[in-house]
TrEMBL record:
HAMAP family given in the database record: Adenine_deaminase
Gene3D superfamilies: Metal-dependent hydrolases
Organism: Raphidocelis subcapitata
Protein name: Adenosine deaminase
InterPro entries: A_deaminase_dom, ADE, Ado/ade_deaminase, Metal_Hydrolase
Top-level lineage group: Eukaryota
Domain Adenosine deaminase: 53-353
GO MF annotations in UniProt: adenine deaminase activity; metal ion binding
GO CC annotations, alphabetized: cytosol
Transmembrane segments: none
Requisite cofactors: Zn(2+)
Alphabetically ordered keywords of this record: Hydrolase, Metal-binding, Nucleotide metabolism, Zinc
Length: 382
């Protein structure tokens, strides 16, 4: 397996500090919230978002590693970090000068992950934050190729992650995330290595990394093998690449979800096909903002997705940003949270229970806030 600098787990999921100030800066969108949230400057909006049960469907577990834990693991494992202190690391992670800059930060962060305990602490820390945010389900990507290239045994990765999942109230599962830069042969090799851990540790196969020039169809055989193994299938497509990358992910890889997928909008036939099939996309507009994808057009594109009929879902601060950009009201936000469960790989009955919990939380929020009772549509927001 190549030992070159690890590719990014996802161009749209850089390590991000989740402290309030940072997220606030990211969501400092000029748009005022919907009139239902206007009274207290958006605090009621944030309360609703926090209280709504949610499913997290687009998260790269490596991207959740926070600076303090990174320094702790570096000290424990004797790994030298390229930062003098936590402040310098935070500064490096606050903005990226370009892809290489992002790669340098990603590599520095992941270099500290070496043992089962490291993977346990990584996932445990994220899942604690997720539980506090009322995330009930998290389906998380794992860059197994990158970790194995550093000599980490797959058994240590799987055992650490599973131990964290078992200790968490969040219904956590993991997805093998193949990096396109490494090519189909390496992908097949990783999938074969992971076979003993399917389905105990991994429920799906995802495809990420630099998109342009790496057509999804190159991975047709790998995805066919994953299907035969009973894995769910998804791919990052339509992030940097155009609509034909999304078409290929659907037709050649038979994906059940498209990550990002925003450039599907460029082909009306594709939009119609995805809406008819209720094939969901997972948007990450805040990450797009940080990496300056669709510069100047992102707000319009997100509004277009909401109007397109394509099923969609968001996580973290994305809810607030999208709510402000699109002027979403309380019911529409609850519909988005419900849609996140619909797009998950949970069994049908569990989905139903979580969707019911969304509307229960919505009713509770409305009663607490003294919001007028209006019959909500309670369907998907399109
Ligand atoms: Zn991603």
């Amino acid at each position: 397996m190549p030992h070159a600098a690890s590719p990014p787990p996802c161009m749209a999921a850089p390590p991000i500090e989740r402290d309030a100030a940072d997220v606030s800066a990211l969501v400092s969108c000029p748009a005022p919230p919907h009139p239902a949230f206007a009274a207290d400057g958006g605090a009621a909006l944030r309360r609703l978002i926090r209280q709504l049960p949610k499913a997290e469907l687009h998260l790269h577990i490596e991207g959740t590693l926070e600076v303090d834990l990174m320094f702790k693991l570096a000290a424990r494992n004797g790994v030298a970090l390229p930062y003098a202190d936590a402040a310098a690391a935070r500064a490096a992670r606050a903005s990226y000068a370009g892809l290489q800059d992002f790669l340098d930060v990603y590599n520095a962060c992941t270099a500290v992950l070496l043992t089962e305990d490291d993977f346990f602490e990584l996932a445990d820390a994220y899942l604690a934050r997720a539980a506090a945010d009322n995330v009930l389900t998290a389906e998380m990507f794992v860059d197994v190729q990158g970790h194995m290239a550093r000599g980490v045994p797959l058994d240590a990765i799987a055992s650490g992650l599973l131990r964290a999942a078992a200790a968490s109230p969040v219904d956590a599962s993991f997805i093998l995330c193949i990096q396109r830069e490494l090519g189909p042969a390496a992908a097949s090799e990783a999938l074969k290595a992971a076979r003993p851990y399917v389905p105990s540790a991994f429920i799906g196969l995802g495809l990420a990394g630099a998109e342009v020039g790496n057509m999804p169809s190159e991975y047709e055989a790998v995805f066919a093998e994953a299907e035969e193994m009973g894995l769910h299938k998804m791919a990052h497509a339509g992030e940097e690449g155009g609509a034909r990358y999304v078409w290929e992910a659907i037709r050649a890889l038979r994906v059940e979800r498209v990550d990002h997928g925003i450039r599907a909008l460029e082909d009306p036939q594709l939009v119609a096909a995805m809406a008819a099939a209720r094939l969901p996309i997972t948007l990450c507009p805040l990450s797009n903002l940080r990496l300056q994808v669709y510069a100047g057009e992102l707000e319009a594109r997100v509004r277009e997705v909401l109007a397109s009929g394509i099923a969609h879902c968001y996580v973290d601060g994305n809810y607030e940003w999208v709510a402000r950009v699109a002027g979403l009201g309380p019911e529409q936000l609850a519909q988005l949270a419900a849609a996140s469960f619909e797009a998950s790989f949970l069994p049908k009955e569990r989905k139903k229970a979580h969707v019911a919990a969304v509307w229960g939380a919505f009713d509770a929020w409305r009663a607490e806030e003294g919001q007028p009772h209006r019959p909500a549509a309670r369907g998907h927001p399109h």
